[in-house]
Amino acid sequence: MASILITGCRGGIGLDVACRLLKRGHTVYATVHRESSVNDLRTALQSCGENFVIDTLDITESSDIDKVDNWDIDVLINNAAIGDSGPLAEIDLERVKAVCETNVFSALRLTQKVVPKLIAKGQGRVIFMGSMAGLTPSPFYAPYGMTKFALESVASSLRTELKPFGIKVIIINPGVYKTGFNENFMSRKYEWIGAQSLYKDHMTYMRRKEWVLKLELPGTWSIARQVVKAVEARWPKRRYVAPAWEWVFLPLLRWFG
Fold first, then answer.
1. Out of 5-9, 63-67, 115-119, 139-143, which region has the weakest mean confidence (pLDDT)?
2. Which of 27, 42, 190, 230 would disulfide-bridge 3, Cβ 3.0–4.6 Å?
3. Active-site residue among 29, 144, 177, 240?
4. In this predicted model, which residue has the larger pLDDT, 162 or 245?
5. Can you tell me the distance from the alpha carbon of 73 to that of 118, in angstroms, rounded to the nearest whole number?
6. How many helices (H) and strands (E) does the chain have?
């Protein structure tokens, strides 16, 4: 059994994965961004198993990441992420920087903190939660998608760099699941489009690009199952994808993006 650190366990995929791993006998360090989420997470995990530690972990704060020094970790699952959307031709770059800071730089910062622990053990796994958005460019969703494209490169490079130390690096590519995350960040592109926006007369066109929300799956079981495989497989794949049909039709999704 492994000791597994998971970021972003407030709900959705992170919570589902934490529960499934507990049920399979693993020890889980389940972390959330805010203190207000701790009690809800504890209640949710109590029915899944007993071997868990719940704590807040703001991955954008180096001082907060120091908590990891006190945890015994075999597997790191970089799941925490934020999203934003809007036309790249005019979106405030501070908003883009915020998404990059959380989804890319902070995930890498946490990985750098954990890797020495894994090297000392001579084995371990680092798992990045990517996205189909990191494989399929989508108009108006680039502030989020570009970070997932970056994680593709991060995972690929780390996989080679850490192989001599016995550490396996894996990326997970979820499709669209109905957790509220996609709908929330996709709708943000309308918050700041005012009278001076280049797209003030193109709202109908922008809304047509939200067709992807109609594909959302109601449960996260299919992707959570892939994460469990990434944790437990003796010889894990480099990439796990769900739902499978999105991977099969990826070229078509790119065509209609």
1. 139-143
2. 27
3. 144
4. 162
5. 7
6. 11, 7
* Rounded CA separation 100/102 (Å): 6
Written as one letter, the residue type at 178 is K
Nearest to 5 by CA among 67, 93, 63: 67
Average pLDDT over residues 207-225: 68
Q: pTM for this one?
A: 0.89
For the segment 137-144, the average pLDDT, to the nearest whole number, is 83
Q: In Å, how far from its chain's centre is CA 214?
A: 21
Domains and CATH numbers, the chain: 3-255 (3.40.50.720)
pLDDT at 6 over 90: yes
Four-CA torsion 148, 225, 118, 83, nearest 10 degrees: 20
- The CA distance from 234 to 122, in Å, is 15
Question: Is 144 a catalytic site residue?
Answer: yes
Check: CB of residue 94 under 8 Å from CB of residue 110. Answer: no
Contact 129, 78 (CB under 8 A): yes
- Hunting for tokens 């809304």 — which residue is that? 207
Cβ–Cβ under 8 Å, residues 242 and 225? yes
Instruction: Collapse the DSSP code of 56 into the 3-class scheme (helix H, G, I; strand E, B; otherwise coil) and give the result.
Output: strand
